[in-house]
Amino acid sequence: MNTEIEFPSYEGALTLRGTAYSPDRANGRVPVVIMTHGMADSAERLAPAAQWLADHGFGVVLYDHRGFGPSDGQPRQEFDPVAQCRDMQMAITFAQSCDAFDADRVALWGTSFSGGHVLAVAAIDTRVNAVVSQAPWIAGTEITRHILGAEGLAAFREVFNDERRRLLDGGRPSLSPVVRHPDAPEGGFALVDTQEGYDYLISGPAGLPKGWMNSFTTRSLEHAIEFDVRPYAGRLGTIPLLMITGSRDSLIPGELVREFYDLVNGPKQLTVLDAEHHSLYLPGKGFEESMEASTRWFTEHLQLEAVQHS
C-alpha cells in the first residue's frame, strides 16, 4: 500500500513530500527504511527500490529533497547536504509517528549523494538501527580532484567566486546541466556525461519523472565539494553498516569507499558489484544484486523474518 505523504523540513518553514510504502501483508508494526535521492535527481526514480523493500516486508518513507520534485524550497534545483541531512532526521521523526511503522526499528538507505548523507546522519542520530550506503559521496574535494584533477578543482572554485560576485550585483544563481549525451559536442560542464548516466537519467525504463529538470544551481557544487563524511566513520559505533559499490564506478573512487569502510569499527560489510555508478539502478545491470544485498542486511539487522518476494 502506497500513500502520499508530507512533513516539515527541520526548520519548519518548508514542506517535504513523498510516498510511504507499507507491505501488503503485515502483522503489527513493521521496520521502516528512510530513502531519498542523490544529487539533482528525483525520488520517483527510486520507486522500484522502495517497492522492492515493501514487497519484502519493510515500510519505506521515500521523499524528495527540498528544492526538488514536489517538495518546497527556493532556489529550485539546489542541493545543500547539511540541510538535507537535517531534513533526513525530520524524515525519521515523521516515520516514527506513523502507526504502521515500528519506531524502534528505523534504517537508512542512501545512494550517491544521499549515500554520504546516511553515513553522517547515522553517526549523529541514535534512532538509526541499520544503514545501507550505495556508491556513496565520501569526500567532495577528493572526488572532484579524481575526476577533474587539481586544475579543474581550482577552476571550479573560481566559478564559485564568480557566482558570489553575480549575487552581490543582484543576479540570480546560475544553472548547469545535470546530464548530456556522451556523444554531444564538447563544450561546457555537465554533472554527468557517461552513457550509463544518460541511460539512467534520460532514457531509463521508468522514463522521465514528472517535474524533473535537467539542471541544478551551479553553486550547489561548492556545497558538494566541501561535504566530507570521513570524520563520521569513527562515530558510527555499533550501527550495522552495509556499503555497496560498483567495481566500474568512474565517479566515486573505490579507494575512498574502502578507506571509510576500514575506519568503521562496528558490524559492517562491503559488497562490490560488477557495475557502474548509475547502472546500480538499472534492471539487469546491478539493480537486483544491490537490492538483494540491501534486503538481506535489513532482514538480519532489523529482526525481520524473510518475506518471499512476490
From TrEMBL:
Superkingdom, taxonomy of origin: Bacteria
Membrane-crossing segments per the record: none
Any GO molecular function: hydrolase activity
Pfam families, sorted: Abhydrolase_1 (PF00561)
Domain AB hydrolase-1: start-end pairs: 31-280
Sorted UniProt keywords: Hydrolase
Family listed: Belongs to the AB hydrolase superfamily. FUS2 hydrolase family.
Name of the molecule in the record: Alpha/beta hydrolase
Organism whose genome encodes this protein: Amycolatopsis dongchuanensis
